[in-house]
Amino acid sequence: MPSQSHISRRAAAAAVSLVLAGGAAACGPKDGADGAGAAGGKPGAAGAPQKGGTLTVLNSEPQNDFDPARLYTSGGGNVPSLVFRTLTTRNREDGAAGTKVVPDLATDTGKPNADATEWTYTLKDGLKYEDGTPITTADIKYGIERSFAAELSGGAPYLRDWLVGGDSYEGPYKDGGKGLDSIVVPDARTIVFKLRKPEGEFPFVATQTQFAPVPKAKDTGAKYEEHPVSSGPYKVVKNENDGEHLTLERNEHWDEKTDEERKAYPDRIDVRSGLDSAVINQRLTTSAGPDSAAITTDTNLGPAELAQIGDNKELAGRVGTGHFGYINYIAFNPKVAPFDNPKVRQAISHAINRTSVVNAAGGSALAEPATTFLPEREAFGFTPYDHFPAGRTGDPAKAKELLKEAGFPDGLTVTLTHSTAQNRQTSPEVATAVQQALAAAGITVKLEGLENNAFNERRWDARNTPGFFLSRWGADWPSGGPFLAPIFDGRQIVTGGSNYNHAQLDDPAVNAEIDEIAKLTDLAAAGKRWGALDKKIGEQALTVPLFHPVYKRLVGKDVKNVVISDWTGVLDISQVAVK
Fold first, then answer.
1. How many CB atoms lie within 10 A of CB 204?
2. Distances in whole angstroms, Cα of residue 212 to Cα of each of 80, 139, 158
3. Is the C-alpha dihedral spanning 300, 306, 308, 311 positive or negative?
4. Start-end of H helices in 131-200
5. What stretch of H or E contains 463?
6. What CA–CA distance (Å, rounded) separates 345 from 514?
7. Where is the Solute-binding protein family domain (predicted)?
8. What is the C-alpha to C-alpha distance for residues 47 and 64, in angstroms, rounded to an integer?
9. Strand, helix or coil at 168?
C-alpha cells in the first residue's frame, strides 16, 4: 500500500521541523502535562488577557510555502492556523484536553456512514473571507483538489491515498474543470468525502490545511502564497523573502461567534525568521522593547540555556514545557545477522542504560525514558509494558545470559549506525551512551557515523538498511495509528523508495488488526486497541524504545495566556495575548 509509506516519507523527514515550527503533534512528561512553567506555575505574564498590541514571533526557520495546499500540518498548524481555517481543528487547551478534534468551519467533527468509508460535513452559518464574500463547500472542494497539483506539492498525502480516485488525480489545472468525483458538494453548506476504505480517524485529517477553503476566482497558482485569501482571524499584509518576514493584521470579516478556538488577542503579528537560535533565546531572555511581547514557534531551550536559567525565578516562570508525540529508539533489521536472532535483540534491550541515554539527550528536563513505542499519553493508546527490563541503568547480567543462549558466550561485536548531526536524538552522544552500556554486557559496539542526509537515505533504504541503528518517529496527529502503521504494517514496506518499516515486519495478524482498528470511529476504543497492538508487537524486540523528547521554550515577559497542548507540544499562537 502506498498510503502510509508515502505519508511516512514526508512525516519522518518533516517531523522534527514540524514540532519545532509548532505544526505537528504533541506529548511528554508528567510534570509539564498542563503546560506549567519551570517555576511550577503557568508561564506568561499575570493578569487577564486583553485584545490589542503587537505580538512578535522570532524564528529560525522561515514560513516557506504559505499556501494551504503545500503546508504539511496537523491541527491546522501554528502561524498558518491564524489565516487558514479548516473543517476541523485541534482543541486549543492545555495538556490532554488539547488532543481532541473539534469543529472549526464545520458544525461537528463529521458524520460517517456505517463503515466509515463516507464522511459528511456541514458548514456553520456566517462564514466569510477577508473580502466579505461567503465561504462555501465548493471552495473547500477546490482547495483540496488544487493540493493534488504537482506544482503545489508538499502537503500531507493522506487524501491522495484515501479518496476514491485520488491516486490518479492530477489537480484542477489539468482536469478540464471535471473535479474529483469522490468529493461531492450537494449544496453550498454540505460536503461529502468518499473513501477507498474505512478511516475512522478522518476527522484528524480534516484538521490539515488542505481543507482550508480557496475561492477559485482568487487562485493564482504558485503565487497564491504571496497573498492567500484569509478565512481566519488574521490576513497576510506582507510576505517578504519567501516567508522570512510575515506581517499579519486583523481580518475584519472574521466573526468570533463562528470560531470557538482562536482568541485572536493581538491586533498585529510580526513574524521574523532566519535568526540564530542562540540569538532568539537571548532576545527572549532580555525581553527589551518589542521583544518583551515576543515568542518563538520553532526554537527550544537547550541544556546549557536551561542551566543558565537555573534558579532565576523570573526567567523560569517564563518557560513553557511541551510534549510532542515522538519516540527515539534503536531499530533492528532482522535480515542482518546477528539481529536475526531474537535473543540477541532481547539482550541488547536488557543492557540499555536509559539514564545515560537521557543524559546524552540533554538530561531529564529534555527527555523522558521510554519502554513502550507509543508515547505515555492516553490519546495515543498508551499501554504500559516493559518486556525486557533494564531498570534505570541496564541489566548486563541478564543480557549476558541471553547472549549465551543465543550462542555468544564470549560476547559479540556489532556496528551501530547513527547520524553525525548534533541533534541529541540520533547523534554521536546518544550512540556513545548505547555503546558504553552494551560494553558492560560483553557487546563491543563499533560506531558508524554518517552525515545526516546519508544517514537517512541508508536507514530508509529497504535494500541496504543497517542491522543496528538509531532512529526516531513522530506522529501526524495524537493517535496510535500514525505511530504504528508506518513502522509495522507489512503492506507499507517500500523497496524502491523510502521505507520506514525498518524490521520489514509483514505479519498478517498485525496487518489485519491495523485494518480493524481503522474502521473504528470511537477513538477511545481505537486507542485501547492501538495500545494492545503496541504491547503485542513489542514482544518481538524489533525496537528498543529509548526516550520521548520534552520541549522547553521561553516567552517574552509581557506575553500572556500561554497554552500548550499534548497535540502540538508548543505554545499555541492563537491563544496568546500581550500587555
1. 26
2. 10, 8, 15
3. positive
4. 137-146, 158-162
5. none
6. 25
7. 100-491
8. 35
9. coil
pLDDT over 90, % of the chain? 88
Quick one: the chain helix, strand, coil %, rounded to 5? 30, 20, 50
Q: In sequence order, what E strands does 364-429 have?
A: 367-369, 412-419
| Interhelix angle 481-488/523-538, nearest 10 degrees | 40
Amino acid at 274: G
Q: What is the DSSP letter of 402?
A: H
User: Percent of the chain at pLDDT above 70?
Assistant: 93
pLDDT of residue 44: 84
**Look-up of cell digits 485529517:** 205
pLDDT band at residue 166 using 50, 70 and 90 as cut-offs? very high
Beta-strand pair 101-103/88-90: antiparallel
Question: Cell numbers 458548514 label which residue?
Answer: 123
User: How far does Cα 519 stand from its chain's mean position?
Assistant: 23
3 state SS of 544? strand
365 dihedral zone (left: phi>0; alpha: psi -120 to 50; beta):
alpha
pTM for the model: 0.90
Question: What gap in Å lies between CA 294 and CA 317, rounded to an integer?
Answer: 15
- pLDDT recorded at residue 539: 98
The stretch 409-421 carries a mean pLDDT of: 97
Burial class (CB in 10 A: 0-12, 13-18, 19+), 26: buried
pLDDT score of 45: 81
For residues 322 and 320, give the distance between their C-alpha atoms in angstroms, rounded to a whole number. Answer: 7
- Tell me the β-bridge partners of 248: 236, 269
Question: Is there a contact between 25 and 481 (Cβ–Cβ < 8 Å)?
Answer: no
CA count, 13 A, side-chain hemisphere, 503: 26
Name, in order, each residue with C-beta under 8 angstroms of 344's C-beta and a sequence gap of 6 or more. Answer: 338, 402, 403, 406, 408, 412
Tracing cell 564470549 back to the chain, one arrives at: 410
Runs of H (alpha helix) within 446-564: 452-459, 481-488, 508-518, 523-538
- Cβ contact 211:140 at 8 Å: yes
CB 206, CB 46: distance < 8 Å: no
Q: By C-alpha distance, which of 43, 47, 79 is closest to 64?
A: 79
Rounded distance between C-alpha atoms, residue 579 and residue 564, angstroms = 20
Residue appearing with cell numbers 498508551? 382
Q: Are 237 and 247 in contact (CB under 8 A)?
A: yes
What backbone torsions phi and psi does residue 537 show, to the nearest 5 degrees?
-65, -35
Q: What is the CA radius of gyration of the chain?
A: 24
Bridge partner list, 247: 238, 270
Q: Are 475 and 327 in contact (CB under 8 A)?
A: no
Q: Are 55 and 266 in contact (CB under 8 A)?
A: yes
Is the pLDDT assigned to residue 1 strictly greater than 50?
no
The DSSP letter of residue 281 is H
Written as nine digits, the cell of 339 is: 539481529
* Dihedral sign from CA coordinates of 424, 427, 433, 437: positive
The 8-class DSSP code of residue 229 comes to P
- Give a three-class secondary structure readout of 100-135: CEEECCECCCCEECCCCCEEEEEECCCCECCCCCEC
